[in-house]
Amino acid sequence: MKIAFFNTKQYDQEYFDLANANDAHQIRYFSSHLNLESTSLITDEKVVCAFINDNLDTEVLQRLKQKGIELIALRSAGFNHVNIDAAKQLSLPVVRVPAYSPYAVAEHAVGLLLCLNRGIHRAHNRIREGDFSLRGLMGFDLHGKTVGVIGTGKIGQAFANIMIGFGCNVIAYDVAQSEACIKSGVTYVSLHKLLSDADVISLHCPLTPQTYHLIDQKSLAKMRDGVTIINTSRGKLVDTKAIINTLKNGKVGLLGLDVYEEEEALFFEDFSAKGIQDDVLARLTTFPNVIITSHQGFFTQEAMLNIALTTLSNISEFEQDGRVQNGVI
Q1: Residue 211 phi, psi (nearest 5)
Q2: 301: burial class by Cβ within 10 Å (0-12, 13-18, 19+)?
């Protein structure tokens, strides 16, 4: 099928060309984000391939339908950037990549935790300046600490297993408990108990109306003083302004973010010559006990290849018999 591929980076084209080595599909790559204006780039394509910071609201979906698009192929697991109700009304199927590499994201979350705890980022910068002191770099043993995992899908399970391997006491909260987690030694508790008991809290749940600002002023107040929070899931799970206040007063001791509330206009782009225009994000970057990465948790060779293969497989199945594999609707 002919595919209009939006929000393209060099690595996207490299892995999708590899997955499409037999030329089963005709792909046109665009660097532009998908929005109402960029739909004008579509000519005779029947499929649109979009990423997490593209805009698929009602107006954009209506325009895609008018342009003859038959399928929305997301190269991501999350789909909160799509107006699903509008897609249903327009009879526009939406497919996604439900599992590309849970280990990639889980391992990145662990990397953020270790780097923050032992001040590796700060030590690295000091050494480069000839400062070999250990001042302010003392961490804590993860062994024996209570780690709270919110969301125990495949990524949450992978993260929990790594933390169990570190000798942590792992507790979890999810609306649907995982038998695999329970067998591995995870204890499910209420959200209130997790927030109040955990030394480290890692977010691995999807963004829904119920989880929007799950971490806000009220939930932060329930946490232990000096708590460590890691978010590699969705930016809007965390009320950023509220967490800045708790960083200022020491309630939150360490914060690792691979996602951010308003990341759509920032992440995956280079603003080094322009500066950050987002005042809230700029404020976050001033804290020495905060590490922010640019939604790179998924970014491994294995994950990129799986994303490409699954996305094209979804499209091929739709082309062959109209079935929707890995469909959101």
Answers
A1: -100, 0
A2: exposed
Cα-only R_g, the chain = 21
| pLDDT tens digits, 205-225 | 999 999 999 999 999 999 999
263 is catalytic: yes
Among this protein's residues, is 63 annotated catalytic?
A: no
Neighbours of 143 (CB within 10 A): 9
Q: Which one of 3.40.50.720, 1.10.238.10, 3.90.1720.10, 3.40.50.1820 gives the CATH number of domain 2-100+300-321?
A: 3.40.50.720
Q: Determine the distance from the C-alpha atom of residue 80 to the mean position of all C-alpha atoms in its chain, rounded to a whole number.
A: 11
Given a cut of 90, whether residue 120 has pLDDT beyond it is yes
- The pTM of this model reads 0.92
Domain positions in the chain: 2-100+300-321, 102-292
* pLDDT at position 275: 87
- Which CATH fold topology does 102-292 show? Rossmann fold (3.40.50)
pLDDT above 80 (res 86)? yes
pLDDT at 28 over 80: yes
Give me the catalytic one of 108, 234, 262, 264: 234
Nearest to 161 by CA among 139, 178, 138, 176: 178
Q: Residue type at 247?
A: L
3-state secondary structure 127-171: HHCCCCCCCCCCCCCCCCCEEEEECCCHHHHHHHHHHHHCCCEEE
Instruction: List the catalytic residue out of 25, 75, 122, 295.
Output: 295
> Is-catalytic flag, 295?
yes
Asked if 160 and 187 touch (Cβ cutoff 8 Å), the reply is: no
Mean pLDDT of 151-172: 97
- pLDDT above 90: residue 265: no
d(CA 147, CA 153): 16
87's CB contacts (< 8 A; 6+ apart) are: 56, 61, 72, 93, 94, 328, 329
Cβ pair 199, 230 in contact under 8 A: no
